[in-house]
Amino acid sequence: MLDQYMRFFAASATASAGFSGLLFVALSVVNRDESEHRTRERRTVLAASAFLALIDVFFVSIVSSLWSSVVLATVSLVMAVVGLLGTSRLMPRARRAGNFAHGFPKRRLNLAFAAVSAGGFGTQLGLALALLADAGNAGLVRALVFLIVALFVSALSRAWEVAGIGHRSLREELASTSKTANEADASATATESVATAHGARASESLTGD
After folding, report:
1. Who contacts 94 (Cβ-Cβ below 8 Å, separation ≥6)?
2. What span, in angstroms and rounded, lies between the C-alpha atoms of 68 and 83?
3. Residue 152: which region, alpha, beta or left (left: phi > 0; alpha: psi -120 to 50)?
4. pTM (2 decimals)?
5. Does residue 11 or residue 28 have the better pLDDT?
């Protein structure tokens, strides 16, 4: 039943392993010059949640590519439990770091990440139990495969946030550029006005003489 997903499993295992390494490097780079402990902790918690998802994708993909749907269900069950336990341990750290604090600019995004993590692993656990009860159900196999994609996407979104990319949207960049240009124009206009005034005074002085 899993023969049609063999290429997908191979690709997802390779991609998850590669992105795990890149995420580790990105976290090391962005935290290297960061002196504020809470900021480092926020990034570490976010990176750890991304690692949980990537490790889940890696082990489910690499083990399932070698065996049957029962093995897919079993490894999915094990990794879902690991993911839920890991998420439950990361929640207090995220709360202490201020990720969920009122007034924190990224509060809603962090709450969404936490909900997606818990919901994703919880869904994986339910689907795995259902597939163990009905190993021949192709729909459940397909759902678990789609869930691998969902976990991978959620991990990448958190890795994107950890790396500090995308903190400023294109609209903000354009607004900043426009503001700078307007300030430059205003400064040029003011300089031109001052020069004109000086020129007029000089002309009046010459005329008076």
Report:
1. 42, 45, 100, 110, 114
2. 22
3. alpha
4. 0.70
5. 11
